[in-house]
Amino acid sequence: MKRVFPILGVLTAILLSYALYQALVVAPTERTMGDVQRIFYYHVPSAWTAFILFFINFGASVFYLIKRRPAADIVALVTAEVGVVFCTVVLVTGPIWARPVWGIWWTWDMRLTSTLVLWLIYVSYLFLRRFSSSGETPLLAASLAVLGALCVPFVYFSIWFFRTQHPQPVMGGGGSIDPRMLHVLLINWLAFSCFAFLVCWSRYRLEKLQRDVDHAHALESLLAPRGSVR
Amino acid sequence: MNKIYYLFAAYAVTWIIHITYLWTIVHRYARLKREIEELKKPGV
Question: What distance, in Å, lies between the first and last C-alpha atoms of chain B?
Fold first, then answer.
């Protein structure tokens, strides 16, 4: 396993570089928006990756609620954290794209607002995990994650059910896309998914190690003679 | 502002966010490693 991680890391770096080259050089320039439309190759794959991570978080949380397996709790924590990072990218790159295209950084329309609410739900999930000292924290967090996951389909389908300024979905919606653009989009999504997987993997190992160290500290305090505990 | 700057800003910000997060993971690993070394010391 120790050898697999660096190999996958190098392969992901190559894939990300190739995806960047595709996005900046190979993808055709969009007629009305020009080069600024290329933000789409980072914005949309980041959103899809965040959604997938939040769904894995949902699955792991449900599994934890049923089976109470610590590994499921770690998977839930890790996917929420990495999902928030990707969702942050979505919330930052969106306005950078909107400013030159719409003339404004932000508008309180349904897609943008629901994405912000989704981000706030998962940030509050992470705050709960970080600052709650209750022994029931994983249970409370899992319950919050189940509620948070309900927001994900709402965010995705909000542009179908409400009038919004946001462009129509690339997949399954009313929008159409040049096949060359779709190809570049899918390459970028693959690259970001591989990157997210590696980050989740290393974060999982870190969390597991952290719990082992906490356990060792607890044992040390129990075994130490009275008065000698720091 | 030229539209191309928005494109570079978006790509740069994306990688700044990811690299910052990766840095926090590396930092936490280093701290844990120190803690493990402390735990391994005899008599502590």
Answer: 60
